[in-house]
Structures are given as structure tokens and as C-alpha cells.
Amino acid sequence: MAIVDQVITIALKEVGYLEKKSNAQLDDKTANAGRANYTKYGKNMGCNGQAWCDAFVDDCFVQAYGRETAKKLLGGFSNYTPTSAQYFKNMGRWHPSNPEVGDQIFFKNSIRICHTGLVYKMDSARVYTIEGNTSGASGVIANGGGVCKKSYSLNDAKIAGYGRPDYEHHKTANPTPAPSSPTPVSNKNIYTKKQFIKEVQTAIGTTADGIAGPKTLAKTVTVSKIKNRKHKVVKPIQTYLNALGYPCGIVDGIAGVKFDSAIKAYQKAKNCIIDGEITAQKNTWRSLLGLR
Predict the structure, then answer these.
(1) How many Cα atoms within 13 Å fall on the side-chain side of residue 279?
(2) What residue ranges in 45-201 does DSSP mark as E strands?
(3) Which of 186, 206, 255, 288 has the fewest other C-beta atoms within 10 Å?
């Protein structure tokens, strides 16, 4: 088997996997299906409970080649798609067009690179992909909740480019096959949804169990660059937005201009009212807490 075929074979076997509504039955393809971003890929890559299209690609590479070789092939591991794209640019392995089998494909929206997948074939007109956290609907679907095979015109304006792992350079590598249920990665720089919820609960004075529900939502306060801009809850919001890829700048507990921009970008991506204000009534708190 060619080295590039190893990761393609693994990714194709994952087609049909559905994200989970809770941190349970992660290894089952369809059980406990929900929309809370819990997946085995997030578990394995240390970012469970967060958007997971990038974790899916990273985990397929780890399963195929072992952690050390996978990291070299990808330039690093990140749950933030712009960072993963930058790894390839840093290695001089970024291609704006002309994909090849085994490339990591990156998609963009009006703000930034926002979604990713793996190229498994091409023809003269289209590129064919396997993507995590998407759906079977046509077009680029970020945060779609499943692993699906997709295809796009080679000229699709939403394709940002392709990262090309240096398979040939690593073809003599002696990868360590990953077990069927890899050991979760410990990474102190990963800020999970559960951590975020617990810190929010502490800040608003409710039971800090990391499980959001009506009681937590009822005690949330309105936060913006004008309202409660120095409330204790601002710090966990800043940390979480940074982790999700909506840059807030320094986590200083003060909702300022960068905070406002990050919230508006988040609201646009999550179909909330775009006003820079976090409230339950306008659904931004519900979205951040995973309640919608």
C-alpha cells in the first residue's frame, strides 16, 4: 500500500460517523448522535467539545502513521483551521490550485479559512473529499455534524487552497500503528467547552459542574464592550473565543474593541443577531454554552 493510501483508507472508513450530544459512546458511529461537538477525534486530539473538522484530519493521520510522523507530515496539530493552513505555508507546501490525492483541502468564508478535509480523488473538473463536521448537502458545510464524502468544482471560489504533506520524504518512516481506541492527548493549551462552562458558572455564581442547562442560562448576564465589560465572566469568554478561532487578544477580563469584533464574527458564524452583545435572549449565550 502506498503511504498516501494509508490515511485515505482510514478516512474512508470513518464516513457515516456522527458527532455526539454528550461525552459518551464516542467510538460508536451513530449512537448518541447530537450537536454538542463531542467526537472520538476531539477526544484523541485533546479538543473534545470543540468544532472538529481539523481534529478529524489530524486523527486520521495519527492512526495511519503514528503521532510523530503525522505531526511532521502536517507541520503540527491545531484545531484552528487557519493555523493548520499556515503550517503548510511555513513548510513551503501550500498550493492554491491543482490538488493531489492526500492533500489537506482548506475552505474559506468571507472572514477566514473556516473548514478542512482530505482529498481522496480528482478528475478533470472536480475534487473529491472526505470531511469531518460537515453534512451531505452540496457546498461547503462547516459544523454539519458528520463525516461525509463531498465533491466540488476545481474552480469553487470557497476553496482557499491545499496543504500537501511530504509523503515521499516520510515513506521510509516506521510508523507506530495507533490502537483502535487511542489514548486521549493531554494538552494544557486546549481549553474545552466543559472548562469554559465551569468557569462561566463560577463567575455567575451557580453550581460549577461543567454542564450547562436552564439554571446556568438563567443566571447569565449581558456582556458587551458597553455592558458588564469588566464582569468576571469576560475572562472565560475571551479564552473560549480565542480557542475557537475568534481572536480576542490578551485575556485581561475587559471587553474592548477586539472582544466586540470577535463576538460579532462568532455571531455571524452561528446565525445569532450580530450586535457584539452576549445575551440569552439573542441566542449568543445559548450558542456559547452549547444549548442551541
Answers:
(1) 12
(2) 94-95, 104-108, 113-122, 126-134, 146-153, 159-163
(3) 186
